[in-house]
Design a protein that fits this description.
There is one protein chain. By secondary structure, the protein is α/β, with parallel strands linked by helices. Among the domains are: 128 residues, Methylthiotransferase, N-terminal domain (Rossmann fold); 113 residues, Transcription Regulator spoIIAA (2-Layer Sandwich), CATH 3.30.750; 59 residues, OB fold (Dihydrolipoamide Acetyltransferase, E2P) (Beta Barrel). The protein is built from 14 helices and 19 strands. The strands form five sheets. The protein has a six-stranded parallel sheet, with helices on both faces. Helix 9 runs parallel beside helix 10. The longest helix is centred in the last third of the chain and has 22 residues. It is globular. 43% of the residues are buried. The protein binds S-adenosyl-L-homocysteine and iron/sulfur cluster.
Length: 447
């Protein structure tokens, strides 16, 4: 098909959103669009939005405002907003009222309707945006196996294995905007991963809000460990990563399986959110501090060198400094390789939005800085455990900061830079680690 129109997609938020955008990109190619990296050049602009925190939302509002000028210069330009933020009707209405130049506002489950939404926008007769909201998550249509995602990069790929979430942590908007949990069939996931490996991709990341409950509700009997077992057995050398694991559902049997596997990543992203039992209960997380520590210690013992990373929420409504100190204590006890830290952001429609929240923003920011200081100190030394050791590294190409070096990824998901030739791109190599930086390792190729 002749390509005569150009589309620009901007994605906010998590890896799941980026994976959805890759699928949308694949679909756009089939209906006559080429992709451009420049909004000025585009005939169609799509913004795939995020609702997890207020600052992500504010960025979208700012960026949409800036598109007004482009639309004035090019009245035929089509602007479509979609994703988690616009799945909430009150936000969709807010956009419609504030930005009359938007053509359509859709939610999270729109892949199959996108050609029609674009066509309607092109033929547009009405003034103001059309709002198209489908039930979040029901028959999640981004799993339409007939649309092939267009992926960036040569050697890595993100593969969503499920959508939505059934956990209802009291602070979190995800179950409201992505709907109930739905898993792809194991057959479809395995077939996609097989094809990716055949294409030369070796760094595969399985995505889900709670990968440990993968398969729930599917008629076939494959749970997450079963899925990993089948993927691990595929021919060749590759790394299968997975995120996010939920401490309440991540079982020791899974860790035992990973410990004995060939190709499953030794990186476990296990969000703790808080180190205080009182706060964990208010968050509805379903585990205690003691259970979390036990699980993390078990993983460290069974999988030597494992990289444990986490998410932490600071300033949950009702959190006291005493509670926060328990989080600091847990962070020091475990020694995460990295922690994604967030200040609590009130989300309309969640249970915690109704909780009293007496702590000031200034105080929360001070706690947040204290947590960063503690984590930064841990980062200064955490990778030292690898110095002198040999790691198996997948070479992903030239180094970003230093093109003289190659950059790669270890089985622990850690960046490793080393000197070597172009012939190593996309291949595994053994690298002896000589230096640890807070965010990467430096080593020498073993020949
Ligand atoms: N499903 C994953 C994470 C989903 S959202 C899990 O269960 O851990 C990613 C991270 O954003 C969360 O781990 C949490 O730390 C953070 N987050 C979620 N809701 C938030 C809110 N209302 N305010 C601030 N951070 C939030
Ligand atoms: Fe949100 Fe909790 Fe579900 Fe993660 S598990 S997406 S934090 S509700």
């Amino acid at each position: 098909m002749e390509k005569f129109r150009k589309a620009y997609i901007r994605t906010y938020g998590c890896k799941q959103n980026f994976a959805d955008s890759e699928k949308i990109t694949g679909l756009l190619l089939t209906i006559g669009y080429d992709i451009t990296k420049s909004p000025e050049e585009a005939d169609l602009i799509l913004l795939n939005t995020c609702a997890v925190r207020e600052n992500a939302e504010q960025r979208v509002f700012g960026n949409v405002g800036a598109l007004k000028k482009l639309k004035e210069d090019k009245p035929k330009l089509i602007i479509i907003l979609f994703g988690c933020m616009t799945q909430q009707e009150h936000t969709a209405e807010k956009f419609k009222a504030k930005f009359s130049f938007i053509d359509a506002i859709a939610g999270t489950n729109i892949l199959s309707s996108l050609p029609e939404i674009i066509e309607q926008a092109r033929l547009k007769t009405q003034k103001g945006a059309r709002i198209i909201l489908k039930e979040a998550g029901a028959d999640y249509d981004s799993f339409d196996e007939s649309v092939k995602p267009l992926r960036e990069g040569l050697f890595s790929a993100n593969v969503p294995i499920m959508n939505g979430c059934d956990n209802f942590c009291t602070y979190c908007v995800v179950p409201l905007v992505r709907g109930r949990e739905v898993s792809r069939t194991a057959e479809n996931v395995i077939s996609e991963v097989k094809n990716l490996i055949a294409e030369g991709r070796r760094d595969i990341l399985l995505l889900g809000q709670n990968v440990n409950s993968y398969g729930k509700g599917n008629s076939e009997n494959t749970d997450f460990t079963g899925l990993l077992r089948e993927l691990d057995a595929l021919e060749g050398e590759f790394i299968i990563g997975y995120m996010t694991s939920h401490p309440k559902d991540c079982k020791k049997e899974l860790i035992d399986f990973i410990a004995g596997s060939r190709n499953i990543s030794r990186h476990l992203h296990l969000p703790v959110q808080s180190g205080s039992n009182r706060i964990l209960e208010l968050m509805n997380r379903g585990y205690t501090r003691e259970k979390y520590i036990e699980l993390a210690e078990y993983a460290k013992e069974k999988i030597p060198g494992i990289s444990l990373t986490t998410d932490i929420l600071v300033g949950f409504p009702g959190e006291t400094y005493e509670d926060f100190k328990e989080t600091l204590d847990l962070v020091e006890k475990i020694g995460f390789d990295s922690a994604y830290t967030f200040i609590y952001s009130k989300r309309e429609g969640t249970i915690a939005a109704g909780f009293a929240d007496p702590i000031s923003d200034e105080e929360k920011s001070a706690w947040f800085r204290e947590l960063l200081d503690v984590q930064n100190k841990i980062n200064e030394r955490s990778y030292e455990r690898f110095v002198g050791k040999v790691l198996r590294v997948l070479c992903l190409g030239e180094g970003r900061s230093n093109p003289e070096l190659l950059t790669g990824k270890s089985r622990q998901g850690i960046i490793v830079d080393f000197a070597g030739g172009e012939e190593l791109h996309g291949k595994f190599a053994d690298v002896r680690i000589k230096r640890a930086l807070p965010w990467a390792l430096i080593g020498d190729l073993i020949i």
